[in-house]
Amino acid sequence: MIFNQDFTIKNIPNKWFWLSVFLISLGGLSYLGLNPALISDWWWILVSYNVFMCLVAGYYIFCAVSKLKKNNKEGVIGTQFTWSFIKIVPLLVIVPVLSFYMFSFQTIQDNVKRTERTYDNFNKVFLSQVDALYQGVQVVRDDRYTDHTKILLQQIHNYSKFQKNSQTYNNMMKVFIEGLIDDGWACYIALTNEEDVLIAETNRNNTCVVEDNQPLSAQQTFVAFEDESSKLFQVQMSTRYISRRPDKKIMNLTAVYATDPHLLRFLSQVKSFYDFANKIEFDWNTSITQKNFLLDFSSTVLLTVLSILLIVFRMIDQLMRPMHNLSMASKEIARGNYDVLVHNQEEGKDMHRLIDQFNEMAKQIKASRQGLDTHNLYLETILKYSFGVIGLDKDRHIQLINPAIGKMLSIDDEQQFIGSLCIKIIEKNTCLKPLFSIAKERFEQGSGEWSEEIELNLPDRCVLLSCQGAALDTSGKALGYVIIVKDISKLNRAQKKAAWGEVAVRMAHEVKNPLTPILLSAQRLRNKFLEKLKGKDLEIIDKTTNVIIDQVKSMDAMVSAFADYANTPQIERKLVDLNALINQSIALYDAHSNITIEFNLSGDIPELLLDANSISRVLINLVKNSAESVEEDRDLTVNIATQYLPSKGIVRLSIADDGNGFEEAVIERVFEPYVTTKVKGSGLGMAIVQNIIEQHDGRIFAGNVDPHGAIITVEFDCKQKQESV
Questions:
Q1: What whole-number distance in Å separates Cα of residue 180 and Cα of residue 186?
Q2: Cut 0.70: pTM above it
């Protein structure tokens, strides 16, 4: 298993993509800033690009934050740090960026206002200069026509003095004025006296006429005005303007001049430029900067913030992904999965080296664990079939209990007691109290190692156990305790059987040999004296010899039975149908009126490797014992049942009766030789039955049933190997 998981979201483009997005936006903003003329035409392109990329960045940020929250709820390593860091990053980014934004915005506003003031000042100065120029040209023009009119009036006034007394004064003045018009002094000349009586008047054409010829007041000496529509310039001047005295005899001159077209064109251009410049308003700030450039700038700043956030996400992902993978791999190793590695494609040398070291450590742990598992398998196999083991921690809680204990002590589901005190086992199995009481006493006494033989009366049998205990400590500190239990019942029985066998051999040799001469001698005495003696002597000889013969025969039968117990014949095992064998063997008891045989035989019993004659002998002996356990006139029910237990790999045969059962003093030794409650019993029948069952690698147990009666249980191993044979 190789761990290679992304921490946030796998589909976020890498940091170089978002850096390129930011640089493109910043480059576009800078280009527009350097080329203001393009802003009005190209500003929307940059805004559209920024808005689109902001939406894309916002989507990826939403996905990343959602995945981060999910990982945080699931307790993924590193999400808490990432979540805290993501909360801080916006402040770290937005505060300086916002400060820069406000500073830049204020700078732009200040520059715009400064430009506006500069423009206003320039406009005012420029307009004042243009206005001054226009006014100056008008003054020059007015002065020109005024001076020209003054010279013209001077000539007319001098000429009028010369012709003052002439009768044809008016005609002469008119001729003189016409001559002046012909000479180009003016296009219209009118001459009046102090009473505003016309002296002479003439014009060049009909277009050159007086527009408004009001007489001058006593205080006025000069009036000039322009008729822009007719392009004429009219001057009214009194001789008082020349003499500078309040004369009574005056002459008023009205002269109309056709305006110089070049000068008129120049004045018109100056006036038009002045009017245009005066109408110009500074609208750069509102139309472009605030609406266009600031939109570009704001969207670029927003895109910058989002790009930085996504770059931070990718950088944190690159940092936390290997840490997350290391954490997940560590959890897998802690769960017992040692076949894990972390994918190593990190660019950072330190992280790359760390992952390499972790993978090397995982490989070494795997190799060590495989060796340890093999060693444990060997040990568990040995303990499974040899000894029962109970491991306790320093507080005497059960940490290990192997299946052999459950089988040995008849404990159902022994694994349920792991983590509990031994008293929990005693509460459900009171018969085991002696074992755990001795163990507790020895451990409390501080015995480092101890050994005891304990005899337990289990519900279905009596067992003799060899118990050994030891404290596990290091440097004087207790780490735990171990109890090793071995069932030595078979060994004890084998030792007793061997002892009884040796006794039987000696009895057969030492006792049976003298029995024959004794029997022959008693018979000889009877044959010799019974016919010769009479009366009381005959009675004594007959009685004593009969006693001797009967006792010799009884001793001979006992020695023969003992010899049979010691010299169990070899069995020949074949595949046999146990149910059929039971029906065949028990058929002998169908004729007994007071004995009822009930069968509860399972139909799924497989064939077993048995010696039919020996097992038949066992069945007959057991049923015979049940029949002999009650009086002859009492009814007896014997129940014979078979059961197949595939989970345990055994076939169980049980023979139960409702007789008197076993006495409590005998039940523990019922399979020992010469243990019997019957008057005529030899006490070897159950011992021989046990020998036969053990020859079949089986087990036999004796017990009582409620309310009264006895039960014998026989278990045969039924493994797949046996079935295949």
A1: 7
A2: no
